[in-house]
Amino acid sequence: MDTRSLAVFISVADTLSFSRSSEQLHMSVSAVSRTIQRLEEELGQALLVRDNRSVRLTGAGQEFREYARRSVAEWQQMRRQLGTDKELAGEVSLYCSVTATYSVLAPILEAFRTTHPAVEIMMHTGDQADGISRVLSGQDDIAVSGRPLRLPQRLEFLPLLESPLCLWMPAADCAVRQLALSARVDSPEFDWSTLPFIVPERGITKDILDAWLRDSGIRPRVYAQVAGHEAIVAMVGLGLGVGIAPELVVRASGLGASVQPMTVADSLPPLAIGLASLRRRLQNPLVKSLWDVAGQTYRAPV
Amino acid sequence: MDTRSLAVFISVADTLSFSRSSEQLHMSVSAVSRTIQRLEEELGQALLVRDNRSVRLTGAGQEFREYARRSVAEWQQMRRQLGTDKELAGEVSLYCSVTATYSVLAPILEAFRTTHPAVEIMMHTGDQADGISRVLSGQDDIAVSGRPLRLPQRLEFLPLLESPLCLWMPAADCAVRQLALSARVDSPEFDWSTLPFIVPERGITKDILDAWLRDSGIRPRVYAQVAGHEAIVAMVGLGLGVGIAPELVVRASGLGASVQPMTVADSLPPLAIGLASLRRRLQNPLVKSLWDVAGQTYRAPV
DNA sequence: TCAGGCCTTGCGTAAAACGCTATATGAGAG
DNA sequence: CTCTCATATAGCGTTTTACGCAAGGCCTGA
Fold first, then answer.
1. Which of A3, A62, A295, B198 is the most buried (most CB within 10 A)?
2. Domain around B145
């Protein structure tokens, strides 16, 4: 018996519906079904009567529901008690891009510092594209990252904000800018093959860009593959080509004057930026507390 | 969190030793170690202080120990309550050989019938050799079987009694008997290659016999491979050869007069007979109750 | 009678747990 | 002082468990 099973049962007992519970619990209907089956097998008693149309509690189910509520409550109380018993202290390791450090993270860390002064943040910065893999490999507890197109089950993602994803061209007059302006970029006839592209080497934005290019039928001329949005923006600013980056990065980079957004026919989807962490690591109260503070910091204003 | 982890922690907190607990809990030391680590990670608190020589509880550990005891107790009480609330009813499926039906099972079922009259036994009989695989494949809840030489982790085995494993020869005068008596069977010079052997087709006794033959350096002349001890005894009784069977089967077969045990130099190891079931299935109280009754039935007299 | 909602089941895959073995560290014997 | 023994942890491959998807069965209401 584990608390997870109890939570599933409580949910089903409340909603009296496997399908509604499955949504509530973010799991498939079959997983809910089997969890209840396991419980019933372990107890040797039917807890729920399902007659293909409705679900209702058996006598045993009602008793067990009381128990389950109590048990989960006691468990959570114990967790809190042990947590508050001793002030949370320790290390949380964080991975993010340079830009994210002050644009996304600053308000979170400011709030966190006041609520958990004894927790040390070990921050690693680098290409945002590596965040997910660093979390998956256990190198860092939490990463600031865009939402992956397909996120592994063991990964939890907490969306914090969105930033439009744009194509950028140099603001200063130069050959690339001339090319980019030579025709209506958003017209189907635009000849992309002459325009040098600066694309991300890897990571979420690369995936999004690839998908977008494919869908739009564009075969770009790749001038450079670069690690890190900041470097892309810098290269665009220098007139080396056009490139992709979230608006947030451009604004934060201080290079906002040297690049300009291009308007294109099929606009790129906005990038969902947030925290990523292994479910497993989130069981650690230290990690969880930073996670929660981040969620509150960005949810409260909205 | 699950009750298993709590039980592990309670044990370690009691013994103050990972290794002693690992024996007590029938699991490896590393599994114990990791279970504690998982708990500590989930709670974000050290529960035990290990200094490579001794183990002692932290403050949080002492608190948590109280909680763990309470929680496990409440869980077990709930199980019992639901169990007694409604009388146990349902089906338990059982596999055994014909002989086992009345020699091993009869006293168990007699006791079980009186304590759990509402539980129906669905019994399947057949070659004892198939019991383990039928349990492993989920066809039956419990099988009466000899203890396998190597038992899979997911299988639980409850030894009930032992029966000497013997070689048997025909009691009536016949060619085979002459051969078997022609020389001291237990002398190293005995020529096994002339003596027709009736061996089990598969199963535990086949494994034991194979190992014994190999160790004794005997290369038998196999006359027939037969499914089921009963058939082996019958064939031996008809003078077709010598064969292996537990004494129990011979006594129960009613053919005790038509076969005689052979004394051999390296005696065969006695066969441990008992119940086999998947750990998983034993979580079902119905199955568990039959299991327990069997254990008591055979332990009480001893 | 058909469509649609609802739970269960089979199957392939992903995650978790375990055991074995190696490693590190300290205690006690020679 | 070294060697051995005992104890907990870490790496690695394997087993076991849990999950999601898709198919299936069953009932209800149109």
1. B198
2. 90-161+272-299
How long a stretch of residues is chain B? 302
Distances, alpha carbon B144 to alpha carbons A71, B114, B244, B284, in Å: 38, 21, 19, 18
In angstroms, the CA B212 to CA A172 distance is 91
What's the CATH code of the domain at B78? 1.10.10.10
B199 and B247 inside one domain:
yes
Judgement on whether residues A105 and A140 belong to the same structural domain of the protein: yes
Q: What are the backbone angles phi and psi of residue A58, rounded to the nearest 5°?
A: -80, 175
Can you give the pLDDT of all 302 residues of chain B as single tens digits? 999 999 999 999 999 999 999 998 989 999 999 999 999 989 888 999 988 778 999 999 999 999 999 999 999 999 888 876 666 667 788 999 888 888 889 889 988 888 888 888 888 888 888 888 888 888 889 999 998 877 788 888 888 988 899 999 999 999 889 888 876 656 666 677 788 899 998 888 888 888 888 887 888 888 888 988 988 999 998 888 899 999 988 988 888 888 999 877 677 888 889 999 998 888 888 888 899 899 888 875 43
Strand bridging mode A196-200 / A242-246? parallel
Residues B170 and B156 both lie in one domain: no
Query: Is A171 in a helix, a strand, or coil?
Result: coil
Residues A7, A25 contacting (CB under 8 angstroms): yes
Cα–Cα distance for residue pair A157/B151, rounded to 1 Å: 43
User: Is A286 within 8 Å of chain B by CB?
Assistant: yes
Q: Answer yes or no: do A177 and A257 share one domain.
A: yes
Tell whether A41 is within 8 A of chain B (Cβ): yes
Q: Which of A44, A83, A284 sits opposite B83 (nearest CB)?
A: A44
For residue A53, report the phi and psi dihedrals to the nearest 5 degrees.
-135, -35
Q: Same structural domain for residues B105 and B135?
A: yes
How is residue B163 written in tokens? 């029966």
Picking from B289, B90, A37, the residue whose alpha carbon sits closest to that of residue A47 is: A37
Burial readout A220-255 (b: 16 or more C-beta within 10 A, e: otherwise)? beebeebbbbbbbbbbbbbbbbbbbbbbbbbebbeb
Distance CA A228, CA A128 (A): 6
Q: Which nucleotides of D are covered by protein (CB under 7 A)?
A: 6-11, 15-22, 25-28
Of B43, B71, B82, the CB nearest to A64: B82
Contact A142, A92 (CB under 8 A): yes
Residues B146 and B283 in one domain: yes
Task: Write down which residues 137-176 in B have CB closer than 7 A to strand D.
Answer: 152-154
